[in-house]
Fold each of these.
Amino acid sequence: MAQDSRPARGSAHWDAHAARWRLIGAPLRPAAEDLEYLRASVGRLGSASAPAEPALARSALLLGVTPEIAELAWQPPHRLVAVDKSEGMVNAVWPGDTPTRRAIVGDWLALQLPEAPFDLVVGDGIFSLFDFPAGYTRLATALAQVVKPGGLLSVRLFCRPEPSESLDQVFQALFGGSIGNFHIFKWRLAMALQGDATRGVRLADIWTAFCERGGSVTNVAARTGWPEPVVGTIEGYRGIEERYSFSTAGEVASGLASAFELVETWQPSYELGERCPHLSFRRRS
């Protein structure tokens, strides 16, 4: 993977992703149980940096503009700032600014926010947008600068299995009818292409493997019964040189260990939930 670890979130790929957002489902987007866990865990774990006065809202930073997270009814209340590098994502996906939340276009590795540092920082799949290990290290350094000592960092990861699945296994499951939705298949395919290495997977290679083994969007939709527009979301990977990386939970925890203490790990029950764990960290003082 290229050593420039900045996430390519201002590209045509992310603008196209924004246009297809309504067709994207879990686990690429958080499911109801992810959201309930996030809301409950933040309330339960709290923050040692939180204001002593209960009437004062805590400060929160959302990396990305995931609307389901933006609209959570946090208890206690939080004042939220969301940052995404893609203007297209902000314009198409953000549910709108309110007196208690706002979204801006910015670089996660160079955040200059008047609200910083924050009591809470939340990210959904954020490490998969960076290369390993250099990009993970840079993101960990940036996170350490925006979380208050004693503050909470909550992330959902997309983790590869060990050992990796083969492409044969993934496509046998696809056409055998044992995969619950297209988005689960797409993540299994991407992770199988990456394998057990840390180099990540080029998005164009996901599209190529899909065409070589699946035939076409129309063919896969017809054989699985999935809506053709949903299957067609994979066309957003065609010709895209950018990469995703799929970590292990241990790799992420290790990268954060110098500034953050892992305080809780939780795994959702939905299909592929074992590859989508939530990790909660406390910023070391």
Amino acid sequence: MSTFFLIALPTSGIAYLVLALLVGGESAGLPLPGETALITGAVLASQGKLALPAVVATAAAAAIVGDNFGYLLGRQGARRLLSRPGRFETARRRFLQRGEAFFERHGAKTVFFGRWLPFLRVTAALLAGAHRMHWPRFLAWNALGGISWAVSVGLAGYVLGQAAAAVLHTAGLVVAGALAIAVLVLFGWLKLRG
């Protein structure tokens, strides 16, 4: 799913709402382009179409709320599914025991740093809930991670958006196209070598 439709949205609250839904949905465990939406919003802010503080605040709040919803889904739904009697019950219960021990030792790091890793960004909250990470601890590290992620990725998107606009304005589309082709050729050459 592409987030470039954000560009066509009016600069009213609709763009921020779409950003919140994509980031929150991804954080809750849905395979949505939340980080791509944040980057797109930040690039649009670099062009004056959105406000960067509002983009960052929207993404941070949506990440925190989405993660807490994912935590509840993991705590109630996933936990129940994994602990139910039936086929592979022993393996599933062993998975829960190992996961609980892991989240006891490394839960804070997993929740915090998981914001920057694509697979963990979608699953960390569900796993934390399913493995009974203490909610106040989860909430603290989730909030810290969500805010840090939104600020760092939002600022990177903003700066890259400004830099890309400056390059395109100064050098023109021909130079940018030639550079893109050169990068693709280099990438293909490296793939063939490796």
Amino acid sequence: MAVKGIILAGGEGTRLYPLTQAVSKQLMPVYDKPMIYYPLATLMLTGLRDILVITTPRDLEHFRHLLGDGSQLGIQLSYEVQAHPDGLAQAFILGKGFIGTDRVCLILGDNIFYGHNLATSLRQVAERDHGATIFAYRVRDPERYGVVTFDKGRRVVSIEEKPAHPKSNFAIPGIYFYDNRVVEIAAALTPSGRGELEITDVNRAYLEMGELHVEVMGRGIAWLDTGTHDSLLQAQNYIATLESRQGLQVACLEEIAYRMGYIDADRVQEVGERMNKNGYGQYLLALLKEERGEYP
């Protein structure tokens, strides 16, 4: 069975009002690229090529215009509408037909991941053909997130959703891997007190079956949640600093597709020439020159 990807890019983005009153949060810029480029890049680096974008009726055509069907990147993109933001687990109900009999990785459209060996570790997790895998990331303010507690053997002991008194400092970032049973589990959920189908309840179902794995993201990995004005600014500054210091693009989709063997140099050249008046296009052209041994 293959692993398919879902990017959940719905919601109303009320914490970012008035910015998001006219445009999706996941279309907002994070420095020099739309926010959705970052989770899409993460899925592509993991080796996923069949990806569903779930968004609102208002924003559907904007995402189609930005990303198309994915063929220009050597991947396949499809789209589904989430009429109402009824919880993260609703993604598996809306995506049932897309998932079919395969495994699935869900990533939130406002989460950015970056760091050394990240792609390698995600690919290893994607190869796990049974159960569910979540991640743990140490944060200063775990009460803002889903919190996981685990023992010394990294076996999950408990999961809590935004607890007032967290049992650990490990938050659960917005990327999750599941086997095909997630479709059935999500369909059987009842809404929480918030009126939503909670991803925490999905994870608890796997925990009760003894099939929930946790992987700890170490100090070399950055996880950025861009759901507030302050966190969006922090993410923009982080990406700007990295790119300025290293001269490398973060989440350059064409570069990733080229490195993964999904597209050829001619396609990279075409995009670079079309966008040669900005840093993104110039970066792609410089990448090809460097590969040919042509340095400034």
Amino acid sequence: MKQFLKKSRIMIIAGETSGDLHGAKLVSAMQKRNKGLVFCGIGGRALKETGVDILIDASEISVVGITEVFSKTLGILKGLRMVKKILKTAPPDLLILIDFPDFNLHVAATAKKNKIPILYYISPQIWAWRPGRVKKIGELVDHMAVILPFEEEFYKEQRIPVTFVGHPLLENSLPPKETIAGKWLEDIPVIGLLPGSRHGEIARHLPVMLDAAGILFQKINPIKFIISLAPEVQEKYKEDIVKRFNGAAAIEVATDGVRRIFEESRMVVAVSGTVTLEAAISGTPMVIIYKVSPLSYFLGKNLIKVKHIGLVNIIAGKEMVPELIQKAACPEGIANTVFKMLSDPSGLKILGLELLNIRNQLGGPGASERVADIAFGILGR
């Protein structure tokens, strides 16, 4: 078995930024145990830095929304052809898929035909929409490694091999704040603006957030805003940010991730996604917003089977934090919601403490190691 593992080739596919980061942690955990493993696949900067041979960059195939997929059709088809060819001509010993179901389930079908074992890490949100996919997953996937507590029972009910491994965010999250009414409640209020990681998300959400910041500046002065932008997109929006405020309000662009934003911010305005869960486990109150194309919204609204879109609210089973979706995610709506929350410091403190309880439901640190255990178990069969 040791000799078999030493020669193992593994393909890993992560089509989104969060999947790229979580996949990199998994690859590192596996490499620590066996430096002879060879990885290739689809991903971004994080996976590349771990030594994975990136066949196609995830940015070429990553999309948000149902109709937005058309803008990336050529990249998606190119990626599928490349991956399927390798699965047929030089099959790996294990295929690890990370979320990204529209692409990954097509890949899984080819892998299954070629008798390649499949580990699916981070479940598609089929419990929220398109639940019919669970049958397809059951037919194709050897093991599901899920990161949300209620997902394990969902798959067990379908008799699909599954393990709740905990959430990978806990592996390097901020320590819980001892008090949410810390020094930042007494100083100039700092508001974090988190417009998303993909270019399309940023283009839709950042202008709205900046307009909301302008309204808030008229209501609260002094006030400071910190905007999270990846280094590669900072320059594109820098001029617009400067032009809008021209020194009237304190605006800072952070390109080193969101950790410091959570440490300094009284609250954040965040695009729905993993970052909202990261805010919650750091005890940072938030407003969740999300906008897609009108057609995507119309189609999605009729398909979604859950009451909330924010992971925090889904896990809590109630609306802990406000959700402003589509038309409600307008500058006035965002500004008014933030102003109302800031005007109630004691309520903000209570919300921050309640959000910290989300940590206790996410399984504790060590998700990558647990997934590595499953991967090596499959390889050793």
